[in-house]
Amino acid sequence: MTSFGALTNALTRRKIQVINHLLVLDIIAILLTILYAVYQGDLSAADPLIYTMSYSLVVFFVAFILIARHNERIFVNDSYRLVPTSDTGLYSANLLSAFISMIYLGVTQIIFSMIAAAMNFQQVMTTLGQAFEHSSPTPGSMNSRSEIIGALIGLVILMIVSTIFAWASISLIHLTTSALTAFLPDSRSRLYRFILYVVVIAAILYILGKIVNPIGDIFYGMVNDNSYYQIYLSSLALLVVAGLESAVNVYLLRNWVETTNW
């Protein structure tokens, strides 16, 4: 049996390669934008950091899509499905490697932002200092320093859990569709597969909507109560839903999903 660690390392390396290609494009885009601003003569001291953080949003979005695509290909790839490991191990290693690759991307983006901030370190520190000066406690509002830090940490955790939940949901749609394809009159027909995908996506999104809507109510209560603790409750609720989705995904992977030689 292939160890879980070895399988995770192998999957992580492939995804890190995808991230590295994306980072090269990110660096080129940042440098070209800065050079263009210099050429135009309107580069301000804060622009390098603004450009870097702006491109980070695009990079994270593209990376999420590429990693999700890579995840789903592994589930129907002969080479990986024939690895001597359990379906639970393959699914868990795949999800963990995706998470590690996104953490790697996050660390690189922090480093890029620190380098950009270092170009005008004094102004950045002054801005941060002013932000904390205006965070003095006010009765009935969530703006003390500890609350702000707690809310920021909660939002980071929520973003991480939301990413895992989104990957699990995408896998649920893909694996459900792959399992149902075997029952189609013509499993190779693109029209039949397209209709099936639309139906499955609509059905799963409807079910998830019924489950996730209460989490939105938690956010609504958080805004009204000026409490950041409910961010953590939302993260926990999403994590539970992602766990249930993952259990269904493993069941489908073990009993119904066949490879497609990708």
Structure description:
The chain crosses the membrane at residues 18-37, 49-68, 89-119, 148-170, 191-209, 229-253. Keywords: Membrane, Transmembrane, Transmembrane helix. Helix content is 82%, strand content 0%. The chain is an all-alpha fold and 262 residues long. The chain folds into two domains: 1-134, no CATH class; 138-262, no CATH class. Helix 2 (47-75) packs antiparallel against helix 4 (87-118). It starts with a helix and ends in a 7-residue tail after the last helix. The relative contact order is 0.11. The model has no long low-confidence stretch (mean pLDDT 84).
Task: Please summarize what this structure is.
This protein is mainly α. The chain has 8 helices and no strands. It folds into 2 domains: 1-134, no CATH class; 138-262, no CATH class.
Helices and strands, with pairings:
Elements: H1 4-40, H2 47-75, H3 78-81, H4 87-118, H5 121-133, H6 145-181, H7 190-225, H8 229-255
Helix pairs in contact: 1-2, 1-4, 2-4, 2-6, 6-7, 6-8, 7-8
What string gives the helices and strands in order? HHHHHHHH
Helix content: over 70%
List segments where confidence is low: pLDDT < 50 over at least 5 consecutive residues: none
Indicate the structural class. mainly alpha
> Distance between termini?
23 Å
Strand percent estimate: under 5%
If you compute it from the alpha carbons, what radius of gyration comes out, rounded to the nearest whole angstrom?
Answer: 22 Å
Overall, the morphology is globular
Q: How many strands, what sense, and barrel or not for the largest sheet? A: none
How many helices? Answer: 8
What average pLDDT do the residues reach? 84
Oligomer: single chain
Count up the domains. 2
How many β-strand runs? 0
Keywords: Membrane, Transmembrane, Transmembrane helix
